[in-house]
Design goal:
By secondary structure, the protein is an all-beta fold. The protein has one domain: Galactose-binding domain-like (Jelly Rolls). Helix content is about 0%, strand content about 50%. It contains no helices and eight strands. Strands 2, 3, 4, 5, 6 and 8 form a six-stranded antiparallel β-sheet that branches. It has a two-stranded antiparallel ribbon with strand order 1-7.
């Protein structure tokens, strides 16, 4: 993935990727905007599981925001497995978009 930006006014922005089969999820790294609005990347729930919905298990919760140009590195708990990985921005007063410039998922094969 190179860049993603959710719609303006979306009160529950999210980004989901299908890994096409189930893997043990070891680490998730992502990078928000690198020059402006980096402060919008906060309160993100990272979910992994075998179904494309929110009934999967939580890998981690990222409070944020990162520093400008900082990669966010999340190590999932050892039992985290899934075909789908979802970054779900939790409700916040600012209601900003979920903006990602890069996303990397490290799995055990």
């Amino acid at each position: 993935m190179s860049q993603s930006h959710t719609a303006a006014g979306d009160k529950a922005p999210w980004f989901q990727i299908d890994l096409l089969k189930t893997y043990k999820i070891l680490q998730i790294r992502f990078l928000g905007k690198t020059q402006i609005f980096v402060d919008r990347l906060h309160d993100v729930n990272i979910i992994a599981g075998d179904t494309p919905n929110t009934l999967n298990s939580t890998c981690a919760y990222y409070v944020g925001p990162p520093s400008m140009g900082e990669w966010v590195e999340i190590t999932c708990s050892p039992q985290t497995e899934g075909r789908f990985v979802k970054l779900d921005k939790m409700y916040s007063e600012d209601r900003y978009h979920l903006e990602l410039c890069e996303l990397e998922i490290t799995v055990m094969i």
